[in-house]
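for the writeup, i need someone to sanity check this before i put it in the appendix. the sequnce is what the collaborator sent (i think, or maybe the updated version? ugh). structure was predicted straight from it, no edits. if anything looks off just tell me and ill rerun, i have time this weekend
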Amino acid sequence: MSGEPRAGTAPLFDPRQPETDLGRMLDKAAPPGRGYFIAFTARSGSSWLSDLLSSHGGLGHPKEYFNPGFLPTGAARLGARDAATYAARSAKRTARAGVHGVKLTSTQAVQTFGSIPAFLDLHPGYAALLLVRRDIIRQAVSLYLMRFQSRVHSIEGQGEGDRVEDAPYDGDAIRKRARQLAAQEEAWDAALAGRPVLRLCQENMLAGDPAALVARIAAHVGVPAGTVPSVASRHRKIGTDLNARMAARFAAEMPGFVTKLAEARADRLARLEPPLG
């Protein structure tokens, strides 16, 4: 997955987009005082983390504002004809308590801004968080199984309706997704070289104390310390033991690939934030 827009897809921004009252109003508003972005890979726990940070109240509302799937609708609402205008107006509109948070994949950065460096140039001073999953094979299996699900995670109180209890095993498809995930990690690593990055993984987040994690992120972002409010994420994983069975079979059938991938990721994983609290 290169991240380049697929041939034949419609452009995200319309240069003929008419101005809107909301866009004019946002141009007059002050930009957020603080900002951060969560650079994540799919099925790494970003929805859980986003919901947790949103519950804090002082760390913005980090969502996929640059997701090409619904960005054109947002751009039209904000009267944005290009990525720079959309980014500036979106930040002002979605910030909370003077803090703007956003999450995006490397693919979304390329599709929306042309490249990861272009995204970074439009967000100077933003604190960087990198979110991956330590077990990339389980992650690849989860990504593969998404094709058999209508909902990829559940929110507390909504039930877990469509857990995948059975699906055909496809080692080649899982290997392809593992390669894609590793390539996306590498893309972020290269773009963020030389700058402070808080490196998180799903496994360590879930093993630690949510309040301690939020406090660590707040310190990284530069939000004043103090008593961290009671925080919690409503998101729950909906995986089954099918994920574990497929991952174990893949590891048994393709040990060379698993070893090579682990060696390539060793330095990144060594720099992960440990479980907190």
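The first strand starts at residue 34 and ends at 40. The two ends are 36 Å apart (CA to CA).
thx in advance!!
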